[in-house]
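During the no-cost extension, the postdoctoral fellow (Dr. R.K.) reprocessed legacy sequence entries with the updated structure-token encoder. One reprocessed record is reproduced below for audit purposes.
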Amino acid sequence: MPFSDDEVERYARHLVLREVGGPGQQRLARARVLIVGAGGVGSPAALYLAAAGVGTLGLIDEDVVSLSNLQRQVLFDTADQGRLKVEAGAERLSALNPHVEVRTFPERLTVANAAAVVGAFDLVLDGTDDFETRLLVNRACVAAGKPLVSGALGRWSGQIGVFAGRPCYQCLVPEIPPDAETCARVGVIGALAGVIGTLAALETIKIITGAGEPLTGRLMLYDGLAGEARTVRVAADPTCPVCGQP
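Re-encoded structure tokens follow.
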């Protein structure tokens, strides 16, 4: 499908980029990406994916915007307090790029709806802040054969990984940690959400366009206080109940 003059101008910096160009931009326009959780990670990721021209973005989140979100969830404004995150987010994304279709799911991802919601998209970006949902997203992605970009953060550090088949996210986190921390309890520096969310968007764009080497089977660990990052490999667990061999 040919791009309009407006789209050619809008995506000009992508079109001249060797690793993207016209074919890569067309792949972005045809892509369908589901963002689970319109929070600290999902907010910047959604903005950059919309700006990049991803054709269809899905937002699933049951929460409403609160004042405490605005320190890091840059998808929303002060006037959005009390509104459903997916509705306020869709409005912002459409204003940023009217060529992007935004599908909203004002609900929580559950065992009952996960297969249908995940199955409607090509790739899933998970920015949720609880292990129960992360493990559910992973199971749905493995069952549907969808790549999963997973981002998480807390305090001053964050991580980003890509899972496609084996190893899966549950190989990394076999069970929910009993002492799992939440941002509400331990805090998080706001700008860290921008770092991890933007990296999640970058990995998503790489997967869609075929550019470079995605973090498939690897985990990037970012330490904001030290200003350091390192990447480690995730080993496949042969006994994993999700992706392990039968």
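The chain has a mean pLDDT of 95. Strands lie at 32-36, 56-60, 101-105, 123-126, 148-154, 157-163, 218-223, 228-233. The remaining legacy entries will be reprocessed before the final report is submitted.
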